[in-house]
Specification:
The protein has helices at 6-17, 23-30, 34-46, 79-90, 116-129, and strands at 66-73, 95-100, 107-113, 134-139. It is an alpha+beta fold. It folds into two domains: 8-46, Winged helix-like DNA-binding domain superfamily/Winged helix DNA-binding domain (Arc Repressor Mutant, subunit A, Orthogonal Bundle), CATH 1.10.10; 59-139, 2-Layer Sandwich (Alpha-Beta Plaits). β2 (95-100) and β3 (107-113) form a beta hairpin.
Amino acid sequence: MAIIDETDRKILKELQRDASLGLESLGEKVHLSRNACWRRIKALEDSGVIRGRVALLEPGKVGLGLTVFMFIRTSSHDANWLTKFARATSDMPEVLSAYRMTGDLDYLIRARVSDVAGYDQLYQRLINKIDMSDVSASFVMEELKETTELPL
């Protein structure tokens, strides 16, 4: 774990809210000079605390209005299967995240698709790439909270 001080936390909070902030504006918000902000951001990037800076899109406005959670069970629990599964999911742009789980589920996928037909296309591509013993899905009816901000 990287060691970050309170000023780094302030910088990170501001960048999580708006990564497009200029160094002048950011410096004003965290009470640092432009150069001091730049040095701290560079150090946070070099240490891997900041993985990247992105634009957050409105999914419905780009034709991806449906969030689906796919629940995967497999009868194969070996390294080869996991490698194949990881490769298959990473090659599918609709898959936003994939997790290996504890408990009743083996894997959980969160994906964004246009509609139920888009989900079916994703499902068909996934089952053609990898053997699974059970796949079920739930569709999000209403998004109550979704954020990329980590609680610092």
